[in-house]
Amino acid sequence: MKKMFFCLAILTMLISMVSCGSTENGGTSESKATTKVAVTTIADSAKDEKTATTASNGAEKSKDSAKSETTANDAANSNLDLKEEERLFGGYVDTQGDVLNLRNEPFPTADIIGTIPDKTQIDVYSCGKAGWYCTSYNGKSGYVSADYIKEIESYMGNASAGINVAPAPTVAEAVEIRDALNFADELMTSCGLNTDTTQEYVSENGNIYHKVVDGSFRSTADIRNYFTTYMTESYISSRYDNLYGSSNSKCIDVNGELYLEYRPIGGIYSFYNDTPVIVASENYEEGYSIKLRANCYGSDIIVVVDVIREDERWKIMDVQ
User: Fold this and answer.
1) In Å, how far are 101, 142, 146, 244 from 125, measured between CA atoms?
2) Chain segment 258-301, per-residue pLDDT in tens
């Protein structure tokens, strides 16, 4: 009996020791596992931070690179190398009074690097993209929409032959020539200036004149200065000999005041407000012709005005 009790005691002790050992081992294993998980989490977190930092650095680098590239593109496009062999024609801006945007790339959303006023004459170059041209204005080279560019029909025969041909008149200069021609026609038909019909002067030969009340012209000298700005002396003498300076002049000075002959009759020209067409003159080697559409007694005609460069201006040499 004692022997059995002793064996049971030993067996109980062994079971107790085994049970305690399993709990310790299990705890250690759990602790190790927890530690491993914690270490792994920290390691993974560090790895993620590095990845995020790398991605962030990459993004910043990419951003800097893109910025650098954009700056380089802007610089390149604002100073395009416009080669003569790529020149298409001489043209002018036609925006109906608005300015034309000069962009750094041939796209409607590209950055605007400058603006070109309406009716400005420009050299037009190929850019390799449909609907766009290259040009230069105010020291900047860029791209403009082809929708707002009109060609000046320049004749290159003289230039190719080695003759020094002056640059063609601008559209604005051509319009001034048209206005001067129209004004001269009106004066020759006793129109064109506002007059006071109550202040009348009758010359010795019976011509009736009315005092001019237009502030722009106060004497025949003003009339002469105007026309010599837009016409050569030879053209004035051949067409407007009676405009001023003779006994039968259309304009005379009376007591220091300008008077216009009163004899209202119909004029020759009635120009349309079209954009003038500018071509090289067939009659003058270094001149140009300005083609103007007019209404002549109900019929449309083309008036050809030959101009030459004189005193730093384009002046009328002949009208056909």
Assistant:
1) 16, 10, 11, 47
2) 999 988 776 777 888 888 888 888 888 888 999 999 988 778 89
> What are the tens digits of pLDDT across the range 19-35?
444 333 334 333 333 33
pLDDT of residue 87: 83
What's the CATH number where 188 sits?
3.10.450
| 127 shares its domain with 186 | no
**The sheet that has 251-254: what strands, in order across it?**
195-202, 208-212, 257-261, 251-254
User: C-alpha distances in angstroms, 183 versus 81, 104, 190, 207, 268?
Assistant: 44, 43, 10, 21, 11
Q: Which two tokens stand for residue 94?
A: 């036609």
- Give yes or no: residues 184 and 301 share one domain: yes
> Is there a domain that residue 7 lies in?
no
Q: Looking at the 3D structure of the chain, how many domains does it have?
A: 2
What is the C-alpha separation between 207 and 145, in angstroms, rounded? 57
Please give the residue range of the domain that contains residue 103. 84-151
